[in-house]
Amino acid sequence: MTPDQNDLWFLPLGGTGEIGMNLNLYGHDGQWLMVDCGVTFPKPGRVSADGTVHHRGEPPVQMADPAFIADRRDQLAGLVITHAHEDHVGAVPYLWPLLQCPIYTSRFTAEILRRKLAEFELLHRVPIIEVDTGDTRQIGPFSVQWLALTHSIPDPNALVIRTPIGRIFHSGDWKLDAQPLVGHGYKKQTFTELADEGMDAMVCDSTNATVAGHSISEAALHKGLLDAVRCSEGRVVVTCFGSNIARLHTLGLIARETGRYMGLLGRSLINMSGAAKAAGVWDSSDRLINPSHLGYLPRDEVLVVATGSQGEPRTALRRLAAGTHPDLELESGDTVIFSARAIPGNEEAIDGLIARLKEMGVRVVTAEHSPVPIHASGHPAQEELQAMYQWVRPKIAIPVHGEAEHMDVHARIAKDCGVSKTLVGRNGDLFMIRPVPGMRRQIAETGRLGWQKQELVRVE
């Protein structure tokens, strides 16, 4: 199955009909362009949207099976990574040997990617081309332009994919945040100009399509987090997603305002902060102290940011709750703040962690029960989706990055905004954008691969 010069196709192998392990293909004139290459972390006992029943003993890191494009890698023009979240970039070290194509991405994402590749001894084998927001690169028959949007990580980008026969707007993960605190913002004009040019299709994030209203800005969290820290007498530990450099910036400011020293606990947090410094998106006024010094400071002078907001095993917060962390020990009267919401499937692990902390006499503050916001999602709620459709005005809406309920609601929003055609499908479905819009179900075989015992295995 090869697209000819009159075809413009979209073929998702992962991330459509589910949230996680994104892997998208665009086809035109005998070649394919891949957008994103991510992983997922399945929980035993949970049933994924694709019907996969997860059990103990299966690989803890999983990704979309790239067999369709790996069998055609001579037709793969390149891989574009929209941003540095694990569900968009995490599978590259595992799958690149099967793909062997150049990778195009922004400076911060490239910094994260290089660190991952180095762990697999691939750093000097993989060609990484850094691009700036606004740049346009010719990748095979595809002219790809990077557009500024906001998300919960530095340097997220939407894409415009242009060919001689059609144009596609690929949103990536996004929200409309007027004050993102870190990284580039966005301009309405960028997207209204796309409408003037004419977009044949908009392939767009559905994660929060069921959420009414507008997402909260990162800047709006300062008051809630400051109040939570100020009313704490002992040590304060904040757990959040380590990739949210803006949240770390807010906490660094709060540390200075409250006379506390800030330190990071957890490999991913330390890695992300190092990448942010290398990429020039770390505020120089945010000074961190060595984690090994935290235990020697007066309790009321400590503000720790720790990994483990989802109750994951072996993370810093789990070790603190177990009393096994080498750098710090929690005591009765200390406070733990969850500046993150539970990812579906993690509720049981988080509840168990909170129960253990409370048994220790630790005060726990969660985003769900805080009277003021202490967490903001990185994805668009309904008002933001409506705004984007009104700005871009595509001919076709293709909801992705969501389970069935999210994508169905997303499609209704698009129709209500005047989009004449919506195509809702699943991984393996072929979305034909040109010459005649339509879908062919389950054209490509899909599945999962897992990383276990230093090799890729098929997940049944």
UniProtKB/TrEMBL annotation:
The UniProt entry, under Pfam families, shows: Lactamase_B, RMMBL, RNase_J_b_CASP
As one GO molecular function, the record gives: hydrolase activity
Which SMART domains does the UniProt record give? Lactamase_B
Tell me the Gene3D superfamilies matching this sequence. Answer: Metallo-hydrolase/oxidoreductase, Ribonuclease Z/Hydroxyacylglutathione hydrolase-like
Q: Where is the signal peptide?
A: none
Where in the numbering of this chain does the Metallo-beta-lactamase domain appear? Answer: 20-214
Q: What is its EC number?
A: 3.1.-.-
| InterPro entries registered for this protein in UniProt | Metallo-B-lactamas, RibonucZ/Hydroxyglut_hydro, RMMBL, RNase_J_2, RNase_J_b_CASP
| SUPFAM superfamilies linked to this entry | Metallo-hydrolase/oxidoreductase
According to its UniProt record, this protein's enzyme class is: hydrolase
Question: Mind listing the UniProt keywords for this protein, alphabetically?
Answer: Exonuclease, Hydrolase, Metal-binding, Nuclease, RNA-binding, Zinc
Tell me which PANTHER family the record gives. RIBONUCLEASE J (PTHR43694:SF1)
Per its record, how is this protein called by name?
A: Ribonuclease J
